[in-house]
Amino acid sequence: MQKNVKKIKLPGTDIEVSPLGLGVWQFAGGHGLNKYIWSKEIPEETRNDIVKAALDGGINWFDTAEAYGGGRSERNLASALKANGVKDEEVIIADKWFPVMKLAGSIKRTIKKRLEALDGYSIDLHQIHQPYSVSTTRAQMNAMADLVEEGKIRSVGISNFSKKKMIKAYDALKDRGLSLASNQVHYSLLHRNIEKNGILDTAKELGIKIISWSPLEQGTLTGKYHKDPSLLKNLTFIRRRIMPNIKKKTKKSKALMEAIEEIAKAHEVTPPQVALNWLINFHGDTVLAIPGASKVHHVESNVGAMYFELSKDEMDKIDELSRPLNKMK
């Protein structure tokens, strides 16, 4: 039985999403370059159960990408949705075009492959994965706008774009009568750069949603590395490269983690639920998050973040302890 949870509307659309989505990069694990990130493939039955747990917990959207196994994540997501009897109109899917060394024309040329990989499921939010296309931001947005007008996607987002490039994307879409729905960026209590470089303030000003990837900082904010630092050795080389200071952050965030654990006990929830709750509520409805899950209990825990309320004092305490770790005043 799916739980009811508040929905947040993507700007300029009728698309409503839960505060948490499920990132399914892990669904590409064990193949191609992804084997250096996710060393083991998640069994099909487990993928199906992960998706079911997400849906049952109130999540209504999933984030995937062309780059995640060259379509493998998309195909495995579609397969899991079908296994759970989910119809296209019952789910929201966010996908991404991989732009490295590509022209904007590739966006329209590859859309058929993206839709084929999703096997009958629509792309509700199509995102530029990185700001590294050979083409201008305007050319990329025009290609995306064409796809919206052709009915092949429903809305447009970006990922890992700076404040300057985000504004360019917003302006280009505005000229086409469309809204920029989102900017997907690295954001967590241990990585608050977007609060310092203008991305978050600009997103609030323009009404753009922020989608946080790695909201639990590769599991650091679950507290497991604080309790057993030896677990850090299990991270793959690429994951350590993605989070180069994870060992240092674990050591320095002891006081923050202790406060999160204390607050979690008061609410009878878990530390990662507190960390996620703070992220999706501290800035009103601006921030969404897409924690991943390689095990069913991961997603069962994560969804609980949407079902309790932190007090202002609790939020402020977490904010205060997190600021020095991010060199914020």
Helix/strand layout:
Elements: E1 8-9, E2 16-17, E3 22-23, H1 44-56, E4 61-63, H2 72-83, E5 92-97, H3 105-117, E6 125-128, H4 137-149, E7 156-159, H5 163-174, E8 180-186, H6 199-206, E9 209-213, H7 224-227, H8 237-242, H9 246-252, H10 254-267, H11 271-281, E10 287-289, H12 296-303, H13 312-322
Parallel strand pairs: 3-4, 4-5, 5-6, 6-7, 7-8, 8-9, 9-10
Antiparallel strand pairs: 1-2
Q: What would you note in describing this structure?
A:
The protein has helices at residues 44-56, 72-83, 105-117, 137-149, 163-174, 199-206, 224-227, 237-242, 246-252, 254-267, 271-281, 296-303, 312-322; strands at 8-9, 16-17, 22-23, 61-63, 92-97, 125-128, 156-159, 180-186, 209-213, 287-289. With 329 residues, it is of the alpha/beta class. The mean pLDDT is 93. It has one domain: TIM Barrel. The protein starts with 7 loop residues before the first strand and ends in a 7-residue tail after the last helix.
